[in-house]
Specification:
Helix 5 packs across helix 6, helix 8 packs parallel to helix 9 and helix 10 packs antiparallel against helix 11. The radius of gyration is 22 Å and the shape is globular. Helices cover 30% and strands 25% of the residues. The chain binds 5'-O-[hydroxy(phenylacetyl)phosphoryl]adenosine. The site of 5'-O-[hydroxy(phenylacetyl)phosphoryl]adenosine (DLL) has 20 residues, from helix 6, strand 7, strand 8 and strand 12.
């Protein structure tokens, strides 16, 4: 099912022509902003000379640090009266980054979300419960307007208040949910504790995103709820959700190339990598009036899937985000992504829904402590079985990270439940 068949199945040549037109417009707009005026001058960039898509690689990269430096409005390309909304990403350090939108930007964003939802088979007959935070975070309002555009009945329930969420699902016959993977797993437990078998709620689809998670977690959520889960990727700097979305084939996310130009670079050298190779995703927003952002370093690691998708869409797909260049943990000199640890844990059937990785240092040696919740029934068995299980988890983690991890098995509900983005890693090491 297509929202805009012509644009979604556009031929490569025509798409590139469209991209170039939009890029030139975005560059001309960017060149009027205080931030890019200076960057372009400092780097000798004359935007009128950018006449092919390939020239993009000559332009400097933009980082989150640049966004902070230009806080609050150094990258804004329209008069203040044209701006109708702002969002901000939750900064854990320093100022948060602020993104501005004109009315057209918001309408275009909603259109892109409607397109993404329809690609998964959602229609105006669906009841859509949006369990992402409403407010400065883009997850709530972003999907909200797209789902309305599509014509769904939208329940703006936001995060938390699990009992109310379940009541809404029952009373209004929710068929599609938008939720973080960590909250989806927690909510399944709450549903079960309340004597309801989650699949009996009749939810057909879940859009999962906003935080890294593994294929194992996706499968687990699909099994717990009896639904189809679709991966959804986005970041505030590029509007929010809707940058890339899985279609009904659930096999990588179509990155909407009429809105964004994607590149994959080597994060160490900045050199562009060929399709299919893994590296850092760099995005140029070519469809935003208020705030054009050129060659933004997402810090997210992925690869382009060059093969055509069976759905007929020509926009190339990206693979599930493997991690960030900056959340990579170095434990005893070994590079480890939390997602790899999660994959190990999710392949152990006794392991429940929540886990935490705590890092500290003792006598100058890194220690890794993995705390995992098990399913309740495990605690009805004997201590020997538990100890055998603990050893199994230790062995599997050790094979991955080489250092000897401490593994603690916990009863369900021992770790703080996640309502929004999960905090999985606690790093107590002093650098
Ligand atoms: O999390 C936007 C969003 C909302 C996406 C709802 C999907 C659903 P930020 O708060 O700016 O924006 O965080 C963006 O979250 O750079 C990734 O590292 C991570 N992320 C987002 N989606 C995924 C995903 C929103 N599907 C940062 N898989 C991004 C893995 C994801 N990581």
């Amino acid at each position: 099912m297509f929202w805009n068949e012509q644009l979604e199945t556009i031929e490569r040549k025509a798409l590139e022509k469209l991209q170039l037109e939009k890029l030139r417009k975005a560059l001309a707009a960017a060149a009027t902003t205080p931030f890019y005026k200076k960057v372009f001058a400092d780097n000798g960039v004359d935007v009128s000379r950018i006449t092919t898509l390939d020239h993009l690689r000559d332009l400097p990269l933009t980082t989150k640090h640049d966004l902070r430096l230009s806080y609050p409005d150094g990258m804004v390309a329209v008069p203040r009266t044209e701006i109708v909304r702002l969002h901000a990403s939750s900064g854990t350090t320093g100022k948060s980054t602020v993104i501005f939108y004109t009315a057209k930007d918001l309408a275009d964003w909603a259109d892109l979300i409607a397109r993404s939802m329809m690609a998964t088979g959602t229609t105006r007959n669906d009841v859509f419960q949006n369990m992402m935070g409403y407010g400065l975070f883009t997850g709530g309002l972003g999907l909200h307007y797209g789902a309305e555009r599509l014509g769904c009945l939208v329940i703006p329930s936001s995060t938390g208040n699990s009992l109310k969420q379940i009541e809404l699902m029952k009373d209004f016959g929710t068929t599609v949910v938008h939720i973080t993977p960590s909250y989806a797993m927690h909510l399944a437990d709450v549903v079960s504790e309340n004597g309801i078998n989650p699949p009996d709620l009749g939810i057909k689809k879940a859009y999962l995103g906003a935080e890294p998670y593994s294929e194992g977690v996706k499968k687990k959520i699909e099994g717990q709820w009896g639904l189809d889960a679709y991966n959804s990727y986005g970041l505030s700097e590029m509007n929010g959700p809707g940058v890339a979305f899985e279609c009904e084939y659930k096999n990588g996310m179509h990155l909407w190339e009429d809105y964004y130009i994607m590149e994959i670079i080597n994060p160490d050298t900045g050199e562009r990598l060929p399709d299919g190779e893994e590296g850092e995703l760099v995005l140029t927003h070519i469809n935003r009036e208020a705030m054009p952002i050129i060659r933004y370093r997402t810090r997210d690691l992925t690869r382009i899937i060059p093969e055509k998708c069976a759905c007929g869409r020509t926009h190339r797909r990206i693979e599930r985000i493997k991690g960030r260049t900056d959340d990579m943990l170095i434990v005893g000199g070994v590079n480890v992504f939390p997602s790899q640890i999660e994959t190990v844990l999710m392949n152990v059937p006794e392991v429940g829904n929540n886990y935490q990785i705590v890092l500290d240092r003792h006598n100058n040696l890194d220690r890794i402590h993995v705390r995992v919740e098990l399913y309740n029934k495990m605690f009805e068995g004997d201590i020997k079985a538990l100890d055998a299980l603990r050893k199994k988890v230790v062995e599997r983690l050790k094979a991955l990270i080489t250092v000897n991890p401490k593994v603690e098995l916990l009863e369900p509900g021992s770790l703080p439940p996640s309502m929004g983005k999960a905090v999985r890693v606690i790093d107590k090491r002093e650098i």
